[in-house]
Amino acid sequence: MNSAHDTETTQTTVTEDVIDLGIGHPGLSLLPVDLVGDSARAAFERGDPRMLQYGYEQGAGEFREALAGFLERTTGSPLAPADLFVSGGVSQALDLLSSLFTRPGDLVFVEEPTYFLSLRIFADHGLRVRSIPTDADGLDVDALTEALGEETPAFLYTIPVHQNPTGATMSEPRRRRLVELAEEHGFLVLADEVYQLLTYEGDAPGPFSRFIDTGRVCALGSFSKILAPGLRMGWISADGEILRRIVGSGFLDSGGGLAPVSSALLHAAVADGRLERHVAGLRAAYRARRDALVVALGAPPAGAPAGDAALLRVTAPQGGYFIWAELPEGTSAVEVLPRAREAGVGFVPGPRFSATESLSRYLRISFSYYDPERIAEGARRLLSVL
Ligand SMILES: Cc1ncc(COP(=O)(O)O)c(C=O)c1O
């Protein structure tokens, strides 16, 4: 396991006897060695040396065309290849956008709670962070309006669909209000949609790429959760002016496009429906894992309001990787964690997801990494500690 993502594992060494439900990685059995291997063989057999050359800054045109087709088929929203940039994944995209659109000391808004490793990227850029509350419908736009009465950020970072860690999805009216506010106040919205295609019930709202023509929105996607994080590959959809800033950066001028080999390799799998079939299989596998966790925790089914599952208040998410659970008043997840580890189970305590280290009564439980039996066993161990 690489060091960057050891932090994602509650600093627990992954051993046979600890079921670390803090791990937010795809399950090993769900990483498609055959799909990527077949694609690689096909690409190398073509023998075109240009795949090993410096790549076009925006990403290879024919790959962006295939990607736009894939995204249109899977999200139902049309997207022009010209509005896509092939990134090195969401983490790299956040780093690049922070470099290009902020200066040290600038203010950015994040959700409370938020994806904790994004906070490290913003800290690397010397950014000041202000948290905006969220609820079951995602970002609280009234609280945002109030905050905007006091100060304007360079950008607002949101995870609008199956959020990490809460699992919540931002409602359509709030999405529209957020974009209006961005236009009125002149800040950027960075929408991190890594879980957009991992919806297990109903339909997720359309992606933020629908709003890029406002010139205020960057929609960030990734192959990490739908294919393989090891590829370090994703995309940004944004309007011409923003894309010109990205593509014109010194970083890309020097090194060229970010994923020429992986793009050449995956082109056919993205274009010919194989990736789509893989994603459909992932949805079924993750749905089963989520259900195993929900049942073992004794929580109400997805879509139902939060219930008291034994000593844990839980809302089952309709997609993504995570369940966000609340402990009773006066209980701290940070204090429970060492006892949980002794019982052979891990999770990530709430303060990790807070820019102000609050949320001590919450914990994030992941259902992505283990098979349903191990997940259920992990949940039983957790309940035994509580
Ligand atoms: C919300 C969110 N954004 C970004 C990432 C990392 O994305 P990538 O692998 O594309 O850098 C993760 C991974 O856990 C995540 O949950």
Count of folded domains: 2
Q: Which fold name fills CATH's third level, the topology of the largest domain?
A: Aspartate Aminotransferase, domain 2
Query: Hetero groups bound?
Result: pyridoxal-5'-phosphate
CATH class (first level) name of the largest domain? Alpha Beta
Category by helix and strand content: alpha/beta
What profile does the largest beta sheet have? 8 strands, mixed
CATH superfamily annotation of the largest domain: Type I PLP-dependent aspartate aminotransferase-like (Major domain)
Straight-line distance between termini:
29 Å
Which word captures the global form? globular
Helices and strands, in N-to-C order?
Answer: HEHHEHEHEEHEHEEEHHHHEEEHEEEH
Q: Which strand order do you get reading across the main beta sheet?
A: 2-9-8-7-6-3-4-5
Architecture (CATH level 2) name of the largest domain: 3-Layer(aba) Sandwich
Number of helices: 13
Beta strands, count:
15
Radius of gyration, rounded?
20 Å
Helix percentage range: 25-40%
Taking pLDDT < 50 over at least 5 consecutive residues as the criterion, the unreliable ranges are: 1-13
Write the layout of secondary structure elements.
Layout: H1 3-6, E1 19-20, H2 33-46, H3 61-75, E2 84-87, H4 90-101, E3 107-112, H5 116-124, E4 128-135, E5 138-139, H6 141-150, E6 155-158, H7 172-185, E7 188-192, E8 217-222, E9 234-237, H8 240-247, H9 250-255, H10 260-271, H11 274-297, E10 307-309, E11 312-314, E12 322-326, H12 333-342, E13 345-346, E14 348-349, E15 362-366, H13 372-385
Parallel strand pairs: 1-13, 3-4, 3-6, 6-7, 7-8
Antiparallel strand pairs: 2-9, 4-5, 8-9, 10-11, 11-12, 12-15, 14-15
Bound molecules: pyridoxal-5'-phosphate (PLP).
